[in-house]
Amino acid sequence: MKDRKNKSPPRCTPGQWRIERYSDFYKITDEQGVTIADIPVQPLDPPEWAEGNAHIITAALKLLIALEDAFALLDRITDTLHYEDGLPVTFLEARDIEIIYGDAVTELARLETLIREARGQQ
Predict the structure, then answer these.
(1) What are the φ and ψ backbone dihedral angles of 59, each rounded to 5 degrees?
(2) Segment 23-66, tens digit of pLDDT
């Protein structure tokens, strides 16, 4: 896991969460099989809504961590692109551009994967 300084740990069940499908509900469990949440299939709602809700809940912790990491990345990019007095940088070394680009591409790929997971499109 990336450096988590200045961030308190999430106040939720840690680890990988799983979805179990039953006839009239979805169960979200932790790595030990302990129930985190039950998502009922409501009779008047389309059945895919319950499944979609289960996928979003299952991805919530990873999405939170990814959002915090993306925020930290944007903060680093902002620091690189501004002088100490807040004025924009008018020249960057090629290495700085490579670092910013590499970090952004890596984070974009990770976020795309998490979005697909939250949508149940793995």
Answers:
(1) -90, -5
(2) 999 999 999 999 999 999 999 999 899 999 999 999 988 888 88
* pLDDT on residue 63: 86
DSSP-derived 3-state class of residue 3: coil
**Lateral strand order in the sheet of 18-21:** 18-21, 25-29, 35-40
Tokens standing for residue 50: 């319950």
Q: Is 39 exposed, middle or buried (0-12, 13-18, 19+ CB in 10 A)?
A: buried
Taking phi first (over 0 means left), then psi (-120 to 50 degrees means alpha), and beta for anything else, what does residue 36 get? alpha
Name all contacts of 102-107 with Cβ < 8 Å and 24+ positions apart.
103/73, 103/76, 103/77, 104/73, 104/77, 107/66, 107/69, 107/70, 107/73
Q: What is the mean pLDDT of residues 3-18?
A: 73
